[in-house]
């Protein structure tokens, strides 16, 4: 009699935890709904933009450069992007951005220091910054009287930008007597300049030599009468009025 085969019992498969999946899906949909509602609400948008520290650059100009607008998404632009955009302005040396949720962005800019002034063709006074850029001085801003005036310089003269950089490296106390700086190039010294001082000295030097020569200039100004000072490869001083030997002769004495 043939043996009957006993069927193999199937292993019981664990039932999937469908309830956990449903909870996860519902939670995901809830978070997505909250995100949509948040980004459509006023809380996710810029409500105030504050810019401080600017003197010569207008707030409206900086606001335009930043790319920010009230009402736009608060998280739409990073602080690093704002800083990068504002630093394209040649007047700006440093920028810090503080984003305060909800909706407020504080921007603090630092402009390059003023190293000199010049008169525009229309007579307006312009400040020359250490970066070499020239900006109109607002009427409500005081003028630093210890800064020199640059005259007879072309707007696009690269030597003016170099001079601005050099003046920024010289301590203020060494340039307070300088009243005017004029370009005076020669074939031997293409960057030669002529300087006039408040103490009535005329100085010939170059932009590249000025940082090393300015101390000598101040020594002569403090100890000598007004005259012409040449500070090139060699330093010379000649008074405008030569010494008169007769001034040293006592009255009634024979010369």
From TrEMBL:
UniProt function note: Cell division protein that may be involved in stabilizing or promoting the assembly of the division complex.
Protein name: Cell division protein DivIB
Similarity comment: family membership: Belongs to the FtsQ/DivIB family. DivIB subfamily.
Entry's localization field: Cell membrane; Membrane
Keyword Repeat: no
Name of the gene encoding the protein in the UniProt record: divIB
Species this protein is from: Paenibacillus tundrae
Membrane-topology descriptor: Single-pass type II membrane protein
Keywords annotated in UniProt: Cell cycle, Cell division, Cell membrane, Membrane, Transmembrane, Transmembrane helix
Entry's Gene Ontology BP terms: cell division
InterPro entries, A to Z: DivIB (IPR026580), FtsQ_DivIB (IPR050487), POTRA (IPR034746), POTRA_FtsQ_type (IPR013685)
Main location (coarse class): membrane
Location of the POTRA domain: 44-112
Organism lineage: Bacteria, Bacillati, Bacillota, Bacilli, Bacillales
A Pfam family: POTRA_1
Annotated TM spans: 21-39
